[in-house]
């Protein structure tokens, strides 16, 4: 027997909460490892966080797909039939615009008015430029490629993907989670059946842009040094020698 839409929605909500909790715990341990200067443990927690972020994105889309008063059963089927997680986000975005602007069959870019067309092209760019790398990294890490990534045929190395993984840190992963949440809210507003999309677009997109800007504007090294200095001050206040344990 197939589960009802309401039951599936509740399941996706619970799954998303569980992944959220896991990410919170991983980020906490990641920050602690970085503060202590334990880079081997920090690397393990960072890659675990990146893996979980990809799972969070997948669960967020599933929850979005089953939101009450959102996508129809036929639209949900079309999203599920996508060849990849990236394609599923693209299909959800396209169906959202078709639903919002009542364009079930027309060529979307040709039929959309100028302003909605700009919205669509902008959000398509976010999926391609921001979401795609997250999904690609998640796929590689899920297949155990934590030290050396392979190409799609698994017959050679992929320096580009390895560089993408190595460029991530505790700060960028948290910012990318904010980007994904803003994107999900924008698609939700498309299918909500009111004027929320146009009304709140600037607010949601400002949050998205702020997260993108924080990735490059904030110095990760400065943040790391500040956190490590705070950790050492705490140790000194408790009379804990470097690398030691509290006195008995």
Give the total of domains.
1
Span from first to last CA? 62 Å
The fraction of residues assigned to DSSP E strands is under 5%
Number of strands: 0
* Largest pleated sheet: none
Counted by DSSP, the helix tally is 10
Structural class: mainly alpha
Structural features, described:
- With 248 residues, this protein is mostly helical.
- The protein has one domain.
- Helix content is 75%, strand content 0%.
- Helix 2 (39-65) packs parallel to helix 8 (170-191) and helix 6 (114-142) packs across helix 8 (170-191).
- The termini are far apart.
Summarize the helices and strands and which ones pair or pack.
Layout: H1 5-36, H2 39-65, H3 73-80, H4 85-100, H5 108-111, H6 114-142, H7 159-166, H8 170-191, H9 196-217, H10 220-237
Helix pairs in contact: 1-2, 1-10, 2-6, 2-8, 3-4, 4-6, 4-8, 6-8, 8-9
Keywords:
mainly alpha
Compact summary:
It is built from ten helices and no strands.
């Amino acid at each position: 027997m197939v589960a009802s839409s309401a039951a599936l929605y509740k399941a996706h909500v619970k799954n998303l909460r569980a992944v959220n909790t896991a990410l919170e715990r991983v980020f906490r341990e990641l920050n602690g490892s970085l503060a202590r200067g334990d880079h081997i443990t920090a690397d393990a927690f960072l890659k675990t966080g990146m893996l979980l972020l990809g799972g969070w994105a997948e669960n967020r889309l599933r929850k979005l797909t089953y939101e009450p008063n959102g996508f129809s059963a036929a639209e949900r089927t079309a999203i599920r039939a996508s060849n990849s997680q990236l394609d599923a986000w693209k299909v959800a975005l396209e169906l959202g615009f078709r639903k919002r602007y009542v364009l079930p069959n027309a060529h979307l870019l040709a039929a959309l008015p100028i302003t909605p067309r700009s919205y669509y092209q902008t959000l398509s760019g976010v999926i391609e430029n921001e979401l795609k790398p997250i999904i690609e990294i998640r796929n590689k890490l899920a297949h155990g490629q934590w030290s050396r990534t392979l190409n799609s045929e698994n017959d050679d190395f992929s320096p580009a993907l390895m560089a993408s993984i190595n460029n991530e840190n505790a700060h960028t992963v948290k910012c990318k989670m904010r980007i994904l949440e803003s994107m999900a809210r924008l698609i939700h507003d498309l299918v909500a059946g009111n004027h929320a999309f146009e009304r709140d677009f600037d607010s949601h997109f400002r949050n998205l842009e702020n997260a993108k800007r924080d990735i490059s504007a904030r110095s990760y090294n400065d943040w790391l040094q500040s956190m490590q200095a705070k950790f050492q001050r705490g140790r000194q206040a408790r009379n804990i020698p470097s690398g030691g344990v509290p006195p008995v």
